[in-house]
Amino acid sequence: MSSIETRPRIDIQIDEKLLSDIPLFIAYLEIYNVNVSTSCEKQIEELSKIIEDVKSKFHDLGSLLQDRVIRAYRDFYWKIKIDPTKQRPAAEALIRRVMRHGSIPLINNVVDAGNMASLATGIPIGLYDIDKIEGNMLLLKYSTPGDEFFPIGGKRVVLRGEPCLYDSKKILHLYPHRDSEYTKITDMTRNVLVVSCGVPNIKYSEVLKAAELTKRYILEFAGGTTTRIVFRGSVRK
After folding, report:
1. What ranges make up the beta strands (E) of the chain?
2. CA 125 to CA 221: how far, in whole Å?
């Protein structure tokens, strides 16, 4: 692993008001000089193994809804006044796709790596093009009511005070389930910020595992050099 010299490290902080209300925590890292392309046969084979594991674990809707990790994110959604029966938590949406169709859409090798880690762990993974981030100081905080968010492939969302990840000019992420159109991973992306998202009743080790898996899959299938994983927030062992 080579050192990173080309750009100051991204620093993510969690606002004290948000943290005092909800014991959130994140794990994040940067991966530089990736090669974004379609997923290779080896990556698709690895994804297929994960999908088979998911199908074995979640054989019906009852087994899904009783899962502790899935329940933790659904409970968090209710807490921030998002109905999880209408807007599915990110990992749950992927798992439901597998249960319904036996597969998930392939986007590119980097996005697919994040989806693989999320499917394997149940933990939401955010991926961002570092070169489209304004500044190197990011803040996870309550949105100001009336702020606008532009999700990948979706319509403009007018926010009501939900937790969001901001750079100096815009919202990158509606926590912990929707990423921004403005910083999405494309064929032109070379540098990637990875954020693994924790909520109450999720363990430190689970969020770490999701970050480590994402790192492993991106390095294996898209190359690059990586920084160490950084933690922020309230951590349950």
Report:
1. 11-14, 25-32, 125-129, 137-142, 148-149, 157-158, 163-166, 171-174, 178-179, 191-198, 225-226, 230-233
2. 17
Beta bridge mates, 25: 198, 233
Strand partners of residue 29? 194
Q: What is the pLDDT of residues 26-59, one digit of tens each?
A: 999 999 999 999 999 999 999 999 999 999 999 8
The predicted pLDDT at position 9 comes to 85
Sequence-distant (≥ 6) Cβ neighbours of residue 183 within 8 angstroms:
128, 129, 132, 133, 172
User: 82: which 2 tokens?
Assistant: 């998002």
Are the CB atoms for 204 and 112 separated by under 8 Å? Answer: no
Taking 50 as the threshold, does the pLDDT of residue 1 lie above it? no
